[in-house]
Each structure stands twice: as structure tokens, then as C-alpha cells.
Specification:
This protein is mostly helical. Helices cover 69% and strands 4% of the residues. Helix 2 packs across helix 3 and helix 7 runs antiparallel to helix 8. This is FadR family transcriptional regulator.
């Protein structure tokens, strides 16, 4: 049931803002229990494909499929492939790096003031926390995803979001306080280049950042 509704949303058969049938009607259509329907709807909400609105006039509504929801679906597929052993983490991490260099270059060319403000806010937060703060992985993922979003290419943003969230590269680093401080300074340099709309400097800054990270990766 979940797979069929997901496919209908992604294919456009179910349009943005369209209301799904009631739980009782979905249970009848798919010949499943109400419990199965609720579990499927909860999963679709977590994938950001539908919204559930309580109260009179509420229900389940199809969301606009943006880069984040597509990224969540890609991440789920990558996770399954990694769990089954069909892909190695190193392969996924390498692809992520190949995508992030052109993403930074495009971000310097196409970023909006809102994109820039988001990047600056993330870096300011990174400057204030220690390397053992539990927010470190999430902030790192948000930083790289924000660069990809600023590129203006939603498909590129979806892939970077999925690849970065699934591999969580910060967990593979020898993240000493000095490495943490150096990483944040590199993030600042990337943001400075994007703010200046300088694609060459943005590309160089990301390359330097990725080379530095590779030098401090723990043995897998």
C-alpha cells in the first residue's frame, strides 16, 4: 500500500494538495487493516510526501515533492543497498565528493540572499560548539545540503542530501578539537567565496576542504 501511494505521488497521479481518502476507505481499497493504513501514512509523513491535518476538514494531503523529500527517498534506497552489501560506503562517499565540488561552484553563481543567510547561520552555530556536541553531524549535513540547494539544481541538491545523510562523513573523521576548528574555518572560507559570487574560489575552497578531510579519515 505504502509503495503504491508513494509511486502515485511521484508520478503525479496524486497531485500536490490533493486529499487522500479516509483511513477507512484506504483500508477498503487496499484490503488491509486500519493499523496497516496508519503505519503507511506515518511512513509517508516521515518521508515528507504527505501532511496529516487533524480536526474537522483535516485528513492526509499530498505535499509538493521538493528536493528534501526526494532526497529522503534516495537515502532510503541507498541505506537498503548498503545494508544488503551491494554498495560500499567508500563508493557512496566518493560520489558525494564528486557532486559537492560543482555544487559549490553553482552556489556561488546562483545563491540567493536567503541561501547565504542560512549558510552563515549554520557556520555561526558550528563556531560555538565543541567537537563532541551531538549536533555536530546534523550541522555538517545541513551545511553541505544548503550549498547544494543554493546551486539552484534541485536534483543535485537531492543527491547531496541523500549521500551526505546516509554516509554521515563526520563519523569517519579523527575529529580532534584542532580538526574541528580547522574544518569550521574551511566552511567559513567556502561561505565567503559563495557570498562573493566567486565560483573559482568556491571550487578551490571545497577542494581544499575535501582533501583535508581525506587526510583525517579514520580507518574504516
Amino acid at each position: 500500500m505504502e509503495e503504491k501511494i508513494r509511486a502515485a505521488i511521484l508520478s503525479g497521479e496524486l497531485r500536490s494538495g490533493e486529499r487522500l481518502p479516509s483511513e477507512a476507505e484506504l483500508a477498503r481499497q487496499f484490503d488491509v487493516s486500519r493499523t496497516t493504513v496508519r503505519e503507511a501514512l506515518r511512513s509517508l509523513v516521515s518521508q515528507k510526501l504527505i501532511d496529516k491535518t487533524p480536526g474537522v476538514g483535516g485528513g492526509s494531503f499530498v505535499r509538493s515533492v521538493d528536493h528534501q523529500s526526494l532526497g529522503n527517498l534516495l537515502q532510503e534506497s541507498l541505506h537498503n543497498l548498503l545494508q544488503l552489501g551491494n554498495l560500499r560506503v567508500e563508493e557512496v562517499a566518493m560520489l558525494r565528493q564528486y557532486l559537492e565540488v560543482p555544487a559549490a561552484r553553482l552556489a556561488a553563481q546562483h545563491r540567493s540572499d536567503e541561501d547565504l543567510a542560512k549558510l552563515q547561520d549554520i557556520v555561526e552555530r558550528q563556531k560555538t560548539i565543541s567537537v563532541d556536541d551531538p549536533d555536530v553531524p546534523d550541522l555538517d549535513a545541513r551545511f553541505h545540503a544548503a550549498i547544494a540547494k543554493a546551486s539552484g539544481n534541485r536534483l543535485l541538491a537531492s543527491f547531496v542530501h541523500a549521500l551526505h545523510r546516509e554516509t554521515e562523513p563526520v563519523h569517519y573523521l579523527d575529529l580532534s578539537p584542532e580538526v574541528g576548528r580547522k574544518t569550521v574555518r574551511q566552511h567559513q572560507k567556502i561561505v565567503k567565496a559563495i557570498a562573493a559570487s566567486d565560483p573559482d574560489s568556491a571550487e578551490q575552497a571545497v577542494n581544499e576542504h575535501l582533501v583535508y578531510l581525506r587526510e583525517h579519515v579514520l580507518s574504516l
